[in-house]
Amino acid sequence: MKSDRRPLRSPSWRLALLGLGALQFGCAASSVRLISYKDPYFPERVEVRLSDCAYWTDPGGDIHAAARAGSLVAGQAVTHYLHVHIFWHPRPGKTWADQTTTDALLRYVVVAPDGVLVYCGTGFALPRKKLGRELRIDLELARLKLDSRSGELADIFGDFRLSGTLHARHAPAAAANLIREAELAAAR
After folding, report:
1. Radius of gyration over every alpha carbon of the chain, rounded to an integer in angstroms
2. Taking the complete model, does pTM exceed 0.85, yes or no?
3. d(CA 177, CA 183)
4. 186, burial (CB in 10 Å: exposed 0-12, middle 13-18, buried 19+)
5. What distance in Å separates the CA atoms of residue 39 and residue 24, rounded to the nearest whole number?
6. What is the DSSP letter of 1?
7. Which of 51, 54, 151, 184 could lock 25 by a disulfide, CB 3.0 to 4.6 Å apart?
8. How far apart are CA 144 and CA 146, in angstroms?
9. In the chain, at which residue ranges do the beta strands (DSSP E only) sit?
10. Count of domains in the chain?
C-alpha cells in the first residue's frame, strides 16, 4: 500500500517549520527565541510560541518544566517539545557562583512525519513565582546542539542559542505527560 505522505525536505518546508508561531493553543505569553548557527555567517533568528506549559518539583527540589508547540506544515503535523530541568538553586551568601556556571539542562525535540530531531544543552534558568500557582522561568544563554536524529528529517538548526520566557502552571501530571511524550518521540 502506497503512502500519500510527502517527505518534508523542501526549502519552503524548512522556512515554514522555522516560522512555527503561526498556530497556537493557550499559554500565549510563553515563547523562546532561537538563533541558529547552522550557517555561521548568516545566523537565523526564530521565535517559537509555546503552549501547554507546566512544571513540577521533584523530591530533591529540582524543577522540571515542559512546554509544547504544534502546527501544520504542508498539511502534516509538526510538534516541538521543550524540557527544562533546573537543578541548582542559589542561596545568597552561601552558594559559590561563577559566571560560567549553568543551572539547567535543556532538551528540545522536533517531531515531524519524516523523523525526529533531539537537541540537548545547558543554560541559565531563573525561576520566579507569580501570583497563584504559576511559575515564570526566564531562560538565558542556553546553547544546544543536535544529540540524535531518526528518520529522513535533516538537521534544521545545527548548533543554536536559546533564550526566552516560560509561564508554566503548577500541574505535575501535565508536566510529566509532556516530558513522557517528548521522550517517547525521541526514542522512535
Report:
1. 17
2. no
3. 10
4. buried
5. 28
6. -
7. 51
8. 7
9. 31-36, 44-49, 51-57, 63-73, 76-86, 104-112, 115-129, 134-151, 160-170
10. 1
| C-alpha cell recorded at residue 110 | 522536533
Residue closest to 175 by CA, chosen among 52, 46, 70: 52
User: Do the bridges between strand 160-170 and strand 51-57 make them parallel or antiparallel, or are there none, so unpaired?
Assistant: parallel
Letter for the amino acid at 102?
Answer: T
- Would you say how long the chain is, in residues? 188
Inside any domain, residue 84: yes
Structural domain that includes position 68: 11-89+101-187
| 96 within some domain | no
Range list of H helices, the chain = 11-18, 172-187
Is 4 contained in some domain?
A: no
Cell of 86: 533546573
Percentage of the chain exceeding pLDDT 70: 77
